[in-house]
Amino acid sequence: MFETEEVYVQGMGTSEFLNGFLSDIPGNVRPGTTGLPIPGYKVQVVDENNNPVPAGVVGGLFVSGESLMIGYWNRHEENQRVMFGNSMKTGDKFYQDEDGYFYYVGRCIDLFKVNGMWVEAHEIEDILIRHPKVYQVAVDDEISEEELTQIVAYVVLQPSVLPSEELTKELMRYMKANMDHFKCPKVYRYVMEIPMGRQVKLIGKC
């Protein structure tokens, strides 16, 4: 009777590639990483123009491999934006260390830069939704009149709560007391519902 040894590794793949393209290597696992490229795939961290970025710099994940799908059905504009022959932008933010290991940062839609610092929308939303007067929230970024990136919170209030300048000040104080100041929304917009067409994640209380 043969004994087998169970080996657990973590990695990453997508349905678009029908396979994994990053994985730990048994015996050479680096904690906190998503591993190294699987043979047959080329994986890079790139800037907005698909140029590779140096180690330690956050960028988009750009994967090449022959198992990539032909494209999304009836989504021509999206195909043009993310598909490049046998390569694809996955919509994930990563960085690499000097040895080539990949570190997951987040989804592109949830990340933006404010004053040169990466900000995660879900981190802000997770704090703001805990305020007792907030029912739903979605965080996004926009360019201010001064042409600077600012954080905007779209807030649906609890039924018994009315929007006011004093409430905005209260929410600002609450956020500054619970997270780094550069992550705190500068603008609060009170809405009846979060527009589903917005490219922002909706967080609500059950």
UniProtKB/TrEMBL annotation:
<dbReference type="InterPro" id="IPR045851">
    <property type="entry name" value="AMP-bd_C_sf"/>
</dbReference>
<keyword id="KW-0436">Ligase</keyword>
<dbReference type="Pfam" id="PF00501">
    <property type="entry name" value="AMP-binding"/>
</dbReference>
<dbReference type="InterPro" id="IPR025110">
    <property type="entry name" value="AMP-bd_C"/>
</dbReference>
<dbReference type="GO" id="GO:0016878">
    <property type="term" value="F:acid-thiol ligase activity"/>
</dbReference>
<dbReference type="InterPro" id="IPR000873">
    <property type="entry name" value="AMP-dep_synth/lig_dom"/>
</dbReference>
<dbReference type="InterPro" id="IPR042099">
    <property type="entry name" value="ANL_N_sf"/>
</dbReference>
<dbReference type="Pfam" id="PF13193">
    <property type="entry name" value="AMP-binding_C"/>
</dbReference>
<feature type="domain" description="AMP-dependent synthetase/ligase">
    <location>
        <begin position="9"/>
        <end position="73"/>
    </location>
</feature>
<protein>
    <submittedName>
        <fullName>Acyl-coenzyme A synthetase/AMP-(Fatty) acid ligase</fullName>
    </submittedName>
</protein>
<feature type="domain" description="AMP-binding enzyme C-terminal">
    <location>
        <begin position="123"/>
        <end position="198"/>
    </location>
</feature>
<dbReference type="GO" id="GO:0044550">
    <property type="term" value="P:secondary metabolite biosynthetic process"/>
</dbReference>
